[in-house]
Amino acid sequence: MRVLPIVPLWALAIITVGALAVCLRAWHAAVRRRPLAWARRAMLVVVLAAMAARPGVADAEAPGAATDLDVFFVVDRTASMIAEDYDGQSPRLEGVKADLAAIVAGLPGSQFSLLGYDNDVQTLLPLTSDATAAVDSVEILHPEVTQYSTGSSLRLAVSQLEGALRAAEDREPGRRRFVFLLSDGEATALAQSDRSFEPLGDLIDGGAVLGYGTRRGGAMREWIGLDEPGAYIQDPETGRDAVSRIDEEALQAVAAELELAYEHRVEPGRFRAALRNVDVGQTQATGDIVPVREDRGWVLALPFLALVLWEVAAVTHGVARSTTVAGLGERTRHERAT
User: Fold this and answer.
1) In angstroms, rounded to a whole number, what is the distance separating the alpha carbons of residues 218 and 241?
2) Cβ-count burial of 211 within 10 angstroms (0-12 exposed, 13-18 middle, 19+ buried)?
3) Residue at 274 is within a domain
4) How far apart (Å, rounded) are the C-alpha atoms in residues 258 and 161?
5) Which of 170, 164, 108 has its CA nearest to residue 135?
6) pTM (2 decimals)?
7) What HEC string does 29-68 produce?
8) Does one domain contain both 226 and 165?
9) Which residues make beta-bridge pairs with 181?
10) One domain for residues 155 and 303
11) Is 122 in the same domain as 257?
12) 330 and 241, same structural domain?
């Protein structure tokens, strides 16, 4: 039997002990009057804590969905990625998140890694087969803090991506590797890297370059590390809202170097088009058998329900009894008065 608590086990223990202490204190104070009621409430606390611990067993087995595919995402996190020209006036990063989630869902059993670049390149998620971790990493994606921005270029990611691909190749040489590069292509770094993606072509088997933004462009709000949007970034030369525009020529050049398809993403959905040149059909399950956890917490639901109904009945009975006693007292006082 194993547990998978809804909160950390230490927090669950503290909450349970605290609740039991309250029940014990109340039981001690009311031991001469209603000991059974407080014993019932203590049992409610214990059963609820046991349910929150989510007991289960992992003795069942099912065919695994593992494949021979490693998927590397390279995501632009510069300030321009929150320019508001995706699907109308939404930030480009919303489209990035939607497409990343769609790729993860469309390639079950794969291993995923997430690299983000702005002023620097960071590995946001090491290669993992945990699709939930991949989705969580996508959901919390955010741009760089505006005040620390010094400009960037998508070619800054060449070295780190090459290192990640070679490390994966050395570790498991028989696996295939896809790369998805998601950016608006805009380069604002004062000293841009001139490294080509072309040498990486021999290390990958597929993927796509996805472009975000429009030629008309969109204004960008400041990102200060909070959920609330900041003021619009100003162009120091004009004093008006700065506008970011997609650089499709740069994105198409990268796609050509990697020999991948390029897709301009302007709205959610219709994602199959972005994978038209990706040979997903070769991805097959390995047939591995993996353990499946069977949750047994539901077994405790019946005693918990019984205790709740008992408590409701006791409280209802107590209220009815108090009302009756109060009525009899009022009647007695009335009779004495007359």
Assistant:
1) 9
2) buried
3) yes
4) 12
5) 108
6) 0.64
7) HCCCCCHHHHHHHHHHHHHHHHHHCCEEEEEEEEECCCCC
8) yes
9) 74, 209
10) no
11) yes
12) no
Tell whether 246 is covered by a domain: yes
Q: How far is CA 231 from the centre of its chain?
A: 27
Residues 120 and 256 in one domain: yes
Confidence of residue 144 (pLDDT cuts 50, 70, 90): confident
- Is residue 64 in a domain? no
Of 147, 171, 337, 154, the C-alpha closest to 250 is 154
Structure tokens at 310: 């008992």
User: Does one domain contain both 160 and 252?
Assistant: yes
- 153 and 107 in a common domain: yes
Whether 228 contacts 176, CB under 8 Å: no
The owner of tokens 């000991």 is: 35
Let me know whether 46 and 86 are in one domain.
no
| Rounded average pLDDT over 137-144 | 85
Closest CA to 213 of 188, 254, 246: 246
* Distance, CA of 300 to CA of 328 (rounded, Å): 42
* Domain region containing 52: 2-59+294-337
How many domains, in total, are found in the chain?
2
Alpha helix (H) ranges present in 107-234?
131-139, 158-171
What whole-number percentage of the chain has pLDDT above 90?
A: 31
The predicted model gives 17-22 an average pLDDT of: 78
Element (H, E) at 265: strand 261-265
> pLDDT, tens digit, for every residue of 36-88?
777 777 888 888 888 777 776 655 444 445 788 999 999 998 888 989 999 98
